Amino acid sequence: MVAAFAPDEHSRSAWRWWRKTNAVVMTTRLALFEAENAIRTLPLGGKCSARESRAALEGIKRALLEGLLIRREIPILRLYPAAQRLSQHHSTGASYGAMDILHVASALTIGADTLLTFDERQGELATAEGLIVQPG
């Protein structure tokens, strides 16, 4: 989500995929929170200006209002058991971060068939669970 709304090395790829597929993207509170937090910190690392950061955050709000992004709610009572299962099954042979596990568990819990990520490790976990990883 960061790549789609804020200047990033993957922005072109993200938008090329989105325009090509014309997809409506399901997201979660967790993914929105992580993206918004990352975008807020970009100016601190000199990766974009404060104005670009604000514009990116507004872009996410606009995409939600226009229905390009649809926020799906996941009951915690379903999310954490799914994440625990992924951790037990996959973290003995590879090292996956908790956020990566939570994002893949979220996708599985909402019934997604595709996970949008540029994160290689997250993509490996998603693929191992049968999800299609895009943009690719």
Secondary structure blueprint with pairings:
Blueprint: H1 2-5, H2 11-21, E1 25-27, H3 29-41, H4 50-66, E2 69-71, H5 76-90, H6 98-109, E3 114-116, H7 120-128, E4 132-134
Parallel strand pairs: 1-2, 3-4
Structural write-up:
- This protein is mostly helical and 136 residues long.
- It contains seven helices and four strands, in the order H-H-E-H-H-E-H-H-E-H-E.
- The chain has helices at residues 2-5, 11-21, 29-41, 50-66, 76-90, 98-109, 120-128, and strands at 25-27, 69-71, 114-116, 132-134.
- It has a two-stranded parallel ribbon with strand order 1-2.
- Helix 3 runs antiparallel to helix 4 (50-66), helix 5 packs across helix 6 and helix 6 packs across helix 7 (120-128).
- The radius of gyration is 15 Å and the shape is globular.
- It starts with a helix and ends with a strand.
Q: What global shape is seen? A: globular
Order of helices and strands: HHEHHEHHEHE
Quickly count the domains.
2
Query: Segments where pLDDT lies below 50 for 5+ residues?
Result: none
Binned, the helix content reads 55-70%
What strand order characterises the main sheet? 1-2
Termini, distance in Å?
15 Å
Bin the strand percentage: 5-15%
Query: Which value, in Å, is the CA radius of gyration?
Result: 15 Å
Q: In this structure, how is the largest beta sheet organized? A: 2 strands, parallel
- How many E-type strands? 4
Mean pLDDT, nearest integer? 94
How many H/I helices? 7
Structure class? mainly alpha
